[in-house]
């Protein structure tokens, strides 16, 4: 993918001027087949949401969903994110011991799921402290999708749906879809009452379901229930595991680099003073924390590969071409560690993202949230949650790595560690 021009699904041109290192070459047909199998694995759960839509319907959904992630809405989510983070930190405080590290990954992902359910449905699941049906089903689906992609026989729909694994997958989908449909139906009934609608529109904290149900296009048309369900399921699938993965790798990076960890902690203390609660206005006053988050996302992008389907033929710099309709994999992990794009790419250096250095950075050198019109619609939601959870964690604990149990990176749908992410936590007085 050197000096190539790849059009995304809506015709916007993405330019890359550097060759990524150590990328394996695949034939177009083999790559397309692999990507398509991966997409087919998530269709039964996601339905036709933003991830898989294209053309006019994608544009309509994107435009209607964008207000759900406006700053005025995100403001009201900060307290919910803080509450979920504090539950996780309370659990860690009870579990830490002097000589034993904690595997933080599952706890962090449960925390982001808890937070997302509150913001999406105003649903307080308590999933961090007890196992409940809906959160458990959501949490299990990611693992089951990845297992299907890895298992060659499961690429055959007939074999998969009759296997025990396929039956568990269908059952998890059924639980999630039934809960989603029930909550949408109940909320729509409430909205039929004009006074209730006025109260929802006036209340200080709208959840994403309120916004989806009240959204109208220029013709006064809203989204049908099927589309609202698909978008809600897409947000639940793509919005908690990705953020949980990003936060886990962020904490790992700061555990490895105590000097950056301490500087972040000092920045938080200076902002809060005697306060213990993070507020919306605090988030814009965290320049060093923001740089550390971005540097962590560079080294450990939660979504290490992205895919685009070409809507017209593309010719590469060496004369080779890809036909219209080809599915293309963009290897973000390789791009972010490319020595021709980044100086000393393996070094954790937050100052890469200082204002002085941003002018030298290519606009497509940093792609943790993709780019162009199909970039991640919830990237500000994710950045907000990463700042809130990091700030509260560093105020409570000092982090250090477990050198005897380092993470083993593996590129899957998300950037995972096969050995977990183990950290030593020391309670701060």
UniProtKB/TrEMBL annotation:
Location of the protein in the cell: Endoplasmic reticulum membrane
Alphabetized InterPro entries for the sequence: Cyt_P450, Cyt_P450_CS, Cyt_P450_E_grp-I, Cyt_P450_sf, Cytochrome_P450_Monoox
Entry-linked Gene3D superfamilies: Cytochrome P450
Top-rank taxon: Eukaryota
Cofactor needs: heme
Keywords: Endoplasmic reticulum, Heme, Iron, Membrane, Metal-binding, Monooxygenase, Oxidoreductase
Pfam families per the UniProt record, alphabetical: p450
Primary location group: endoplasmic reticulum
GO terms of molecular function: heme binding; iron ion binding; monooxygenase activity; oxidoreductase activity, acting on paired donors, with incorporation or reduction of molecular oxygen
Binding locations of heme: 376
A GO-annotated cellular component: endoplasmic reticulum membrane
Similarity field: Belongs to the cytochrome P450 family.
Descriptive protein name: Cytochrome P450 family 4
Species name: Chelydra serpentina
């Amino acid at each position: 993918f050197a000096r190539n021009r790849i059009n995304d699904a809506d015709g916007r041109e993405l330019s890359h001027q550097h060759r990524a290192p150590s990328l394996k070459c695949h034939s177009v047909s083999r790559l397309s087949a692999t990507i398509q199998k991966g997409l087919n694995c998530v269709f039964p759960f996601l339905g036709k949401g933003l991830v898989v839509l294209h053309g006019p319907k994608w544009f309509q959904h994107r435009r209607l969903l964008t207000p759900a992630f406006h700053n005025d809405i995100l403001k009201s989510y900060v307290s919910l994110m803080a509450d979920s983070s504090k539950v996780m930190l309370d659990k860690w405080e009870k579990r830490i011991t002097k000589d034993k590290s904690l595997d933080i990954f599952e706890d962090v992902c449960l925390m982001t799921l808890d937070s997302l359910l509150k913001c999406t449905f105003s649903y307080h699941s308590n999933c961090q402290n007890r196992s409940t049906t809906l959160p458990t089903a959501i949490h299990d689906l990611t693992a089951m999708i990845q297992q299907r992609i890895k298992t060659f026989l499961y690429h055959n729909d007939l074999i998969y749906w009759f296997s025990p694994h396929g039956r568990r997958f269908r059952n998890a989908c059924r639980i999630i879809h039934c809960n989603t449909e029930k909550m949408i139906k109940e909320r729509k009934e409430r909205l039929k009452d004009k006074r209730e609608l006025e109260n929802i529109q006036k209340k200080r904290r709208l959840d994403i379901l309120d916004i989806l149900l009240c959204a109208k296009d220029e013709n006064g048309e809203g989204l049908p229930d099927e589309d609202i369900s698909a978008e809600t399921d897409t947000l639940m699938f793509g919005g908690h595991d990705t953020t949980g993965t990003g936060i886990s790798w962020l904490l790992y990076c700061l555990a490895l680099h105590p000097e950056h960890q301490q500087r972040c902690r000092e920045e938080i203390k200076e902002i809060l003073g005697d306060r213990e609660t993070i507020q919306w206005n605090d988030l814009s006053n965290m320049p060093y924390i923001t740089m550390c988050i971005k540097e962590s996302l560079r080294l450990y992008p939660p979504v290490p590969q992205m895919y685009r389907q070409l809507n017209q033929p593309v010719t590469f710099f060496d004369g080779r071409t890809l036909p219209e309709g080809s599915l293309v994999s963009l290897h973000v992990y390789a791009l972010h560690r490319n020595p021709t794009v980044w100086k000393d790419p393996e070094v954790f250096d937050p100052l890469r993202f200082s204002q002085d250095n941003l002018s030298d950075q290519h606009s497509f050198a940093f792609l943790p949230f993709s780019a162009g019109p199909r970039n991640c619609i919830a990237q500000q939601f994710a950045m907000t949650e990463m700042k809130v959870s990091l700030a509260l964690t560093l105020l409570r604990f000092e982090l250090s790595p477990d050198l005897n149990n380092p993470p083993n990176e593996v590129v899957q749908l998300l950037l995972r560690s096969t050995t977990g992410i183990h950290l030593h936590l020391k309670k701060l007085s």
